[in-house]
Amino acid sequence: MKNMKTRLETSRDLSVQIAEAIRDAIIGGSLIVDERLPSEAELAEKFGVSRPTVREALKRLAAQNLIRTQRGATGGAFVNRLRFQDAYGQQITTSTLLLSMNAVDFETAAEARYALERACAPLSAQRRSADHLACMRAEIHRQGQPGLSDESFCASDVAFHRALVDGAQNPVLSYQLAGAIEAIEPLMNMITFTRRSRSRIIALHGRIADAIEARDASAADQALEQLADYTIALAREVKAARKARKG
To answer: Which of the ends of the chain has fewer CB neighbours closer than 10 A, N or C?
Structure first.
């Protein structure tokens, strides 16, 4: 805690600055996993603020899973071990906001999403477990069920590709691709679902799963490329139809 920045700017939210200072100390190694933070009173004195301000900063850190609180005589706030899976939600939310706020066009999003996924496929072909394959097969089966709603089909589509990515068994890739799969994919589905052929998508999913099971990275890449081309073609059809309706 000795190297922690404690001088605050009066023009910015004080609790945000305190949370940032503690976060930087965790990232920088000044605070290690399971270490107990100073008490609220000690932090308030260190930063020259009130205890409610410190409490708000700690709430921010807890919301980011950077710290946990324990009650009792040996309680307090402790540095958490942040897992990649714990950060998925933030990655997905940030990706969704960036896409919507910056009006990224469909083809740009599709290009990014499939380029990342195709880069992941060879690793998945080498390393996938029986559970990853079982998940992919289960989602393919689900997608073929009569009466499955568009919403449920889209959710299954995301789950299928999530299993493909997780099959690479690389937590850094899974984290980075969380935004691509779970943010971009639903947005793409919203645009194309009215014109797509479920049977064609299911067939491509089946080819991808077969290739991953056979550890054939080239075949998996080819099927993903065809899925990307089909998805982009659908989006162009939707765009053209909308333009035609507007006259």
So the answer is: C
